[in-house]
Design goal:
single chain; four-stranded mixed sheet; alpha+beta; Replication Terminator Protein (Tus), Chain A, domain 1
Length: 320
């Protein structure tokens, strides 16, 4: 774990995060104990992990199916908040698939709702403190990570706010697939942006001719940026590496079929009736040259920012 992920926080803020974290751990353990005694059929797999490296190109991702007994243990553990250890990877373990709630369905739903609400309340508290101390412009993932790491150094931050998902009772189809349509938002300093701009090369045409010299590109970029260079509102949007998503087709209260797409970070919990009637497609291995990748038409995170130097992934925060 990198030390630069920690910052100095008020003792009251650290206490507030720790109290909410301890409550989350307590009720999550209660939920997991009940879930372990409630599962029927389990079809889950571990997705191959890679250390975080935005410049890394992923050509293949392997999926490792679990047996029934292994799947129950792995699935339940994946619902828990994960911590760093000597032998564990720096990125959270991802287990995908379906787990059937064959018993105690209503009790499980109540505890799952309690856990999800505790996660949301913790996120709201941290967001409030970030806004109070840094303003809304700094409400980015890396600041949130610093708050958690400074209060609970061993925690793998993304697993704190992973929601426990339950398929609607009237689900007709569940499928796992690969997606490459999301972005991660990072703040960028003036110094980092200057390096990014100056590291560009000449712009070449298909025939090898120079369309624009390096210095021309640099000057044009600074003209485009103008006073925004020192505004503190610039961010860099980087594409997230290919990752699994879960698509659910279900009928709403009016009988209209709808589609819901969710991150496949943990197993999807389903009712016994859903398992017996729905079509379920498991996650295949990913191969860059063979596997179909889903790409959505829009991106909610991206819409909060307007492009200013999109070729470099530089956007500016809207509404400021």
């Amino acid at each position: 774990m990198k030390n630069n992920y920690q910052i100095s926080l008020e003792s009251s803020v650290i206490k507030g995060i720790k109290v909410r974290y301890e409550n989350l751990i307590d009720i999550t353990n209660q939920m997991c104990d009940l879930l372990q005694a409630s599962f029927g059929n389990v079809q889950v797999s571990r997705v191959q992990n890679f250390e975080r490296n935005h410049g890394q190109s992923i050509n293949e991702v392997l999926v490792y199916p679990y047996t029934q007994v292994e799947g129950v243990v792995a699935g339940v553990n994946n619902f828990k908040v994960q911590s760093y250890g000597v032998e564990t990877p720096n990125v959270p373990v991802r287990v995908c698939g379906t787990m059937v709630l064959a018993r105690n369905f209503e009790k499980c739903l109540d505890l799952i709702k309690t856990v999800n609400l505790a996660k949301e309340e913790m996120a709201r508290y941290v967001s409030f403190e970030i806004e109070r101390n840094h303003g809304t412009e700094k409400r980015l993932d890396y600041i949130r990570t610093k708050y958690y790491r400074s209060s609970i150094p061993v925690v793998k931050t993304p697993t704190i706010y992973r929601q426990i998902n339950v398929a609607p009772l009237n689900t007709s189809s569940i499928s796992l697939s690969w997606c490459a349509s999301q972005f991660v938002i990072e703040s960028i300093s003036e110094e980092e942006l200057n390096k990014l701009i100056y590291n560009q090369n000449n712009l070449y045409g298909d025939d090898g001719s120079i369309l624009m010299h390096k210095n021309e590109r640099i000057n044009k970029d600074y003209q485009t940026l103008g006073t925004n260079l020192k505004s503190g509102r610039l961010v860099r949007l980087k594409p997230v590496r290919v990752h699994p998503v879960q698509s659910i087709y279900y009928k709403d209260s009016n009988g209209i079929t709808k589609r819901k797409v969710m991150k496949a970070t943990s197993p999807l919990l389903i009712a016994l009736d859903t398992f017996e009637s729905a079509k379920i497609k498991n996650l295949p291995n990913f191969n860059l040259n063979e596997t179909e990748i889903k790409v959505s038409k829009g991106n909610r995170k991206r819409s909060k920012f307007s492009p200013i130097l999109p070729k470099l992934g530089i956007y500016i925060a809207n509404g400021r």
